[in-house]
Amino acid sequence: MNPRSRSRGWALQILYMWEQGSADEDLLAVAAATLARRRVSERYRNYLSTLLALLAESLPEIDATLREHLANWRLDRLSAIDRGILRIGTAELLYRNDVPSAVAIHEAIQLAQRYGSAESGKFVNGVLDAVARAVRGADGA
Question: Mean pLDDT over all residues of the chain?
Fold first, then answer.
């Protein structure tokens, strides 16, 4: 598995733990505690740290972007898994110009298919495609 793919998986797990019990706590503190208890290869830690820092610094902007593109849905009504996947994908689309839109969306769909519901992949694809078009232009590049 690609190191960045696995890093995204770890980021999703940490976001999920943060939301399930420690949402009042700092996301990076939850990440540090998790990484102290879990064996995470150094191959994954660099990009994982990058993603978590982006999420911790920019979560209000990420969530605002998502709210603009969630047709007939509220962010707080989504499952924690779908919300986490959308946050990771949106963070990459907004702040990681080295990650092509197609890659960010594909990786998010893979996470959704692995961890989400039967419909999560299609849902994530639709939302992130709209985000990509809005923030990166008509072709989503």
Answer: 92
